[in-house]
Amino acid sequence: MSDLGVWLAKQSKSEREYLLKHQPRDFIEIGRDFNRYYRWMTDFGFIEAKLKLLGVQPLIEDYDLGRNADVLLSEGQTETLKLIQGAIRKSAHVLERDKTQLAEHLWGRFLDCEIPQIKGMLEQAKQSKNSVWLRALRANLERPGEGCLRTLTGHTSAVKAVAIAPDGNTAISASDDKTLKIWDTETGTEVRTLTGHTNSVNAVAIAPDGLTAISASWDKTLKIWDTETGTEVRTLTRHTDWVTAVAIAPDGKTAISASWDKTLKIWDTKTGTEVRTLTGHTSPVTAVAIAPDGLTAISASYDNTLKIWDTETGTEVRTLTGHTDSVYAVDLAPDGLTAISVSGDKTLKIWDTETGTEVRTLTGHTDSVYAVAIAPDGLIAISASWDKTLKIWDTKTGTEVRTLTGHTNSVYAVDLAPDALTAISVSGDNTLKIWDTKTGTEVRTLIGHTDWVTAVDLAPDGKRAISASGDKTLKIWDTETGTEVRTLTGHTDWVTAVAIAPDGKRAISASSETLKIWDTETGRELRTLTGHTTLVNAVGIAPDGKTAISASSDKTLKIWDTETGTEVRTLTGHTNPVTAVAIAPDGKTAISASRDKILKIWDTETGTEVRTLTGHTEWVTAVAIAPDGKTAISASGDKTLKIWDTETGTEVRTLTGHTEWVTAVAIAPDGKTAISASRDNTLKIWDLLSGKEIASFSGDSSFICCAILLDGVTVVAGDSSGRVHFLRLEGVSGGR
Fold first, then answer.
1. With bands split at pLDDT 50, 70 and 90, how would you rate the model's confidence at 735?
2. Pair 518, 524: CB distance under 8 Å
3. Which phi and psi (to 5°) does residue 297 adopt?
4. Dihedral over Cα of 279, 281, 285, 290: its sign
5. How high is the pLDDT of residue 66?
6. What secondary structure does DSSP assign to 286-323, as a single string?
7. What is the DSSP letter of 577?
8. CB of 732 closer than 8 Å to CB of 132
9. Angle between helices 56-68 and 75-90 (to 10 degrees)
């Protein structure tokens, strides 16, 4: 603990509370002591104590005091405070849930920072830990100034839509979890949850007065909400299929909905009555926008067209054609003369709404573009795509200004605040992200893959790790420095698994239907193994290095002679895709895991099934065998891990704590500790004797794979953003 932290701890409770609540402000406003203010705000002891007592937001606000007085602080001091505040804000969604991860997150975001005060703060953080924790060996989280300003979590499924209130201080999100959530955008806190829909909520619009919102759902209804109380005012039921979009007219008295039933409906928001139905599209209608004068609307459809409507008469004014795939969204500029549409053809198109002519096409996204929002001045637009990115565009020139990266799944929607300085996006990764549109950067300084890291394995000497990725490559890493040694290319699809031979000189990777054997020293492909009829999900190499076992979505496992590349035998018995396989230390036994929710133990010499392990209630995603061969641990989509006695096939205990699918598990060489990876963005360390969680690390993205070196304290993990994490388990024997 820092000297300041020790001093604060010695104060009486009332004195300590006063100091933590008011001292930073007193330094600025009363004492004009800017140097002491700066020392306190860069001291880990103070930061940790304030976080524990008052939470994240009051701590963030303390840094604003310095920003307001930056003329009295040096440029370097102001920048340092801005960086620390940015790091805390970026980690706020984790720290609100688990304040003990402050040190982990500061290390993850600042490890390569050379600013003396920040380096000193990291050392204070390390010294303050008196429990087991995972310390980053290299910067493994987004740095301040990169990516989004803040992440909002709370939805339990994909977030499909978002709308920002006219005052810019409130946003409402809609989700596949059947709820809407109202957020305070300044603090990132959830204000309330709106429930009532019985299926996914696809869209939401906020009335100009900010007091009313309307949501649209797959349950074929729209609901009008009082945003101040969160109560449902009325339900609108006239569509005969999913309602995909809704827009509210500028006067707030009228709304227009779009539906999978190929129609749009105009509603009186006060009475909830249907005014008229607009027909003309030949496929589901995906989006609708209303012009500022309220007299015109424009719709988008799966029929590849947009239609402009006269809202007073319900007549179709014109049809806009040009997209070569479904049109997913459209927005109108404030002048009502320009519209921008986005499509499954990966483009945006700018239209002159008076003539119906296409002005220009914007290209750059690598997958379907799903949403677009135009700034109030009409000069910039921001698009959201299934390629996991957002792009900011100059609407006058059609040029791409910047790309915003950080989401780990498709980005479904985006909205701009009235000042256009802030944007909020929502994604299939279950989160909302708040962006600074002026400073958002596309620079990815974190080394890694460009798609999910699906698997990782470690060489026996612990000096090398190999990762596999959805970007179709494998990468060899130096585990001591965290640097990339080489990239292995040759697969033509996602690389789903990798295993390193006991001699460390060869590795086997798995992909769609094939496996490849590599020379790890040269990176040369030695041979390709074929025989599976669909995706190969996992591979393990026996201790003698001469045999490998693969697991596939074709419901089989195959045993291979690695020296000749020939298939020795096929193991059948699972009734669903086989997701994982582990080989016992004696090489005579293997355990497989499957989507059929069971594990099977096999005699590898005869290919016979020894026993079946049942107990999981969802897919079994991973399995690991302890060094003694008598214990195995499985991971599952049911959010648990299970410890098994492999000799009897009985379940020893269940490990609970993850809040999402557990995607991977690895056992330490001493057999006493295990690490698990999960879609809940965490890695957890477990004491296998007690079954208790002893440490946790929260990342910026879902963790997909993990491994532990022979030293028992170095952890390598991969996540859905493409990062490969190198962490050290501190606070255990040999951990320092």
1. very low
2. yes
3. -135, 155
4. negative
5. 81
6. EEEEE-TTSSEEEEEETTS-EEEEETTT--EEEEE---
7. -
8. yes
9. 160
